[in-house]
Amino acid sequence: MSEPTPPERRRIPSFVHHRSRLTDGQQRAWDRWWPVHGRDVTDVVSRAEPFDAQSWFGRCAPLILEIGSGMGESTAALAAAAPEIDHIAVEIYEPGLAQLLMRIEQAGLHNVRLLRGDAVDLLRESIPPDSLAGIRIFFPDPWPKRKHRKRRLVQPEFVALAASRLAPGGTLHLATDWEDYAIQMRSVCDAEPTLRNAAADQPGGWTARPSWRPLTKFEQRAVSEGREVHDLLYHRCHGQANDDLLSVT
């Protein structure tokens, strides 16, 4: 008699999906432009619309994944500043995605695609190892209450998965305005053997705020409220990671 298959341990999500009403302008942008620029992670993971960045963008170019694009302010500005790079923004908040659609059309951008859903599922199931030029995670939900910190995105299993999807030399760039989360991020990323801290020789291991990272209204508010913003920049080391160990459960 065969052994019963143990039940799969349920992964604790790092987000709560609150449905919010779109403004009239956002709704018009969604109706017109989501079929052009957007996809659902569930469709990509199920292979209804397989992950194929070259087909999506109509070219072969370096690809950056942004996890949690919010209202799209940074995403649109960074894509406009680097037209030679393709950008995929993953977000669950529909008004934010709709606002980014408006920014894309207003700026005439051709190097941004949007995915609605869970970035961990996308990384684990659809994005090939060694394929991304960069991953950006700017101001993820800090889950400040101690009992909720297990929900934070930047945990060892996630960082190992993210690092495996970076091409050798690719970058993982994080930023947060919550000091204890910044310390956690640095500790977790420093412990990942396939990553190297670009500021390892700097005090505290923090990266100086890059001048090219847009100063958003969100960050301005954090600074005005007295919270220091920390940037962390890591490079994927050359060499192969053991992908058998890189599953997020």
Distance between the termini: 28 Å
**What value does the average pLDDT take?**
90
Per CATH, the class reads: Alpha Beta
**What percent strand?**
15-25%
SS summary, helix count: 9
Task: Describe the 3D structure.
It catalyses: guanosine(46) in tRNA + S-adenosyl-L-methionine = N(7)-methylguanosine(46) in tRNA + S-adenosyl-L-homocysteine. The chain has 249 residues and is of the alpha/beta class. It has one domain: 3-Layer(aba) Sandwich (Rossmann fold), CATH 3.40.50.150. 34% of the residues lie in helices and 19% in strands. It has helices spanning 24-37, 41-45, 53-57, 73-81, 94-107, 119-125, 156-165, 179-191, 217-224; strands spanning 38-40, 63-67, 86-91, 112-116, 132-138, 166-176, 195-197, 230-236. An eight-stranded mixed sheet has the order 1-4-3-2-5-6-8-7, with helices on both faces. Strand 2 (63-67), helix 4 (73-81) and strand 3 (86-91) form a beta-alpha-beta unit. Residues 1-8 and 240-249 have low confidence and may be disordered.
Question: Can you give keywords for this protein?
Answer:
249 residues, disordered N terminus, alpha/beta, Rossmann fold, disordered C terminus, 19% strand, globular, eight-stranded mixed beta sheet, 9 helices
Set down the secondary structure blueprint.
Elements: H1 24-37, E1 38-40, H2 41-45, H3 53-57, E2 63-67, H4 73-81, E3 86-91, H5 94-107, E4 112-116, H6 119-125, E5 132-138, H7 156-165, E6 166-176, H8 179-191, E7 195-197, H9 217-224, E8 230-236
Helix pairs in contact: 1-5, 4-5
